[in-house]
From TrEMBL:
One of its GO terms (molecular function) is S-(hydroxymethyl)glutathione dehydrogenase [NAD(P)+] activity. Gene3D superfamilies: Medium-chain alcohol dehydrogenases, catalytic domain (3.90.180.10), NAD(P)-binding Rossmann-like Domain (3.40.50.720). It holds the Pfam family ADH_N. GO terms for cellular component: cytosol. Its EC number is 1.1.1.1. Belongs to the zinc-containing alcohol dehydrogenase family. Class-III subfamily. InterPro entries: ADH-like_C, ADH-like_N, ADH_Zn_CS, GroES-like_sf, NAD(P)-bd_dom_sf. Its cofactor is Zn(2+). The lineage of its organism: Eukaryota, Viridiplantae, Streptophyta, Embryophyta, Tracheophyta. This is alcohol dehydrogenase. PROSITE patterns: ADH_ZINC. Homodimer.
Length: 389
């Protein structure tokens, strides 16, 4: 079957389009034409409008061993238009505006029906190179070689195929270059403060690592009414940036004299922060965050992605005597289909800040520049536009 060049009359047929393919670990992405198969049952084919670059993309782009796998189409923060749907898809139809997410929400399992969890049991999160239900790819290059998927989204392509459990329909009126940010990073940070920690009005928050996720935690804590938001980072410039998102205090680990960061925060807060967030992905920082979390009711939330074999060591007596909570937060504890529209409403109502996270915008052809900017620490979020206009 000859692939269609565009979406015109393409329903049920393969589509030929451009993609930025990651061929080898750490090497620039290659812009090439690929074939995108039609959606299978429970799947949706989406025309990507714009996508953003997240640190997780960079981690897996550099990864030489499994779950790093090549050739692959990376990208997982995006917004697009439904081009066609497979069988048994009733939630969306052709022309709908949607945000694909790495988190699923099947709506049927015990976890999806519960308010206590966002971890779908039917389609659990994993770093798979394939579609979640079929363990097969929808991408091939022009030589017929399989191109692997990334986090069930793969947005560095003009067209992608996503399972309906990973698709959230949104209001088409929202600016695409801002809405796409809610596909991962900003949702994760805001959600961690809002849903996972349930930060209370008047509380004290400490955030370890002020990248996009850490700043999004600050934004979430600000929205929840936290009185004091302490940022911890080795880059002092992050304090000025963080003030936009509610940061009130800053700790540079290099300027703590002979004290640990946790000791400094305990002294600053008179006993420890009510809520601590680890946003870097270092076991040592999880321990520091837990150490400066207030006894009795403090919560430490882990958001950073560490190496798979990393272990966190905590004194058992401290756990017993401290009465603190230590918890993980995947996608900020958010249920994508129900919570992303709520966050977009708050953005439209000028409560939630999204514009401030976008520091750069590039065309699809210049996607490797976005990688350079993020690696060099020059940007928070770089939005990549798929349009030529």
């Amino acid at each position: 079957m000859e692939p269609e060049k565009s979406s015109s009359g393409s329903r049920g047929k393969p589509i030929r389009c451009r993609a930025a393919v990651s061929r080898k670990p750490g090497e620039p992405l290659v812009m090439e034409e690929i074939i995108v198969a039609p959606p299978m049952p429970h799947e949706v084919r989406i025309r990507i409008i714009c996508t953003s670059l997240c640190h997780s993309d960079i981690i897996f782009w550099k990864m030489k061993d499994f779950p790093g796998i090549f050739p692959r189409i990376l990208g997982h923060e995006a917004i697009g238009i439904v081009e066609s749907v497979g069988e048994d898809v009733n939630e969306v139809t052709e022309g709908d505006t949607v945000i694909p997410t790495f988190m699923s929400q099947c709506g049927e399992c015990a976890d999806c029906r519960s308010t206590k969890s966002n971890l779908c049991t039917k389609l659990p999160f994993k770093v798979s190179p394939f579609m979640p239900r079929y363990e097969t790819s929808r991408f091939t290059d022009l030589n017929g070689e399989v191109l692997y998927h990334f986090l069930f989204v793969s947005s560095f392509t003009e067209y992608t195929v996503v399972d309906i459990a990973h698709v959230t329909k949104i209001d088409p009126a929202v600016t695409p270059s801002r809405a796409c940010l809610l596909g991962c990073g900003i949702s994760t940070g805001v959600g961690a403060a809002w849903r996972t920690a349930n930060v209370e009005e008047g509380s004290t928050v400490a955030i370890f690592g002020l990248g996009s996720i850490g700043l999004a935690v600050a934004e979430g804590a600000r929205l929840c009414g936290a009185t004091r938001i302490i940022g911890v980072d080795v880059n002092q410039q992050k304090f000025e940036i963080g003030k936009k998102f509610g940061l009130t205090d800053f700790v540079d680990p290099a300027n703590c004299e002979n004290k640990s960061v946790s000791q400094v925060i305990i002294e600053m807060t008179g006993g420890g922060a009510d809520y601590c967030f680890e946003c870097v992905g270092l076991a040592s920082l999880v321990q520091e965050a837990y150490a400066c979390c207030r006894k009795g009711w403090g919560k430490t939330v882990v958001l950073g992605v560490d190496k798979p074999a990393s272990l966190v060591s905590l004194p058992s007596q401290e756990i017993l005597h401290g009465g603190k909570n230590l918890m993980g937060s995947l996608f900020g504890g958010l249920k994508p289909k129900s919570d992303i529209p709520l966050l977009l409403n708050r953005y439209m109502d000028k409560e939630l800040q999204l514009d401030e996270f976008v520091t750069h915008e590039v065309r699809f052809e210049d996607i490797n520049k976005a990688f350079d900017l993020l690696i060099e620490g020059q940007c928070l979020r770089c939005v990549i536009s798929m349009c030529n206009e």
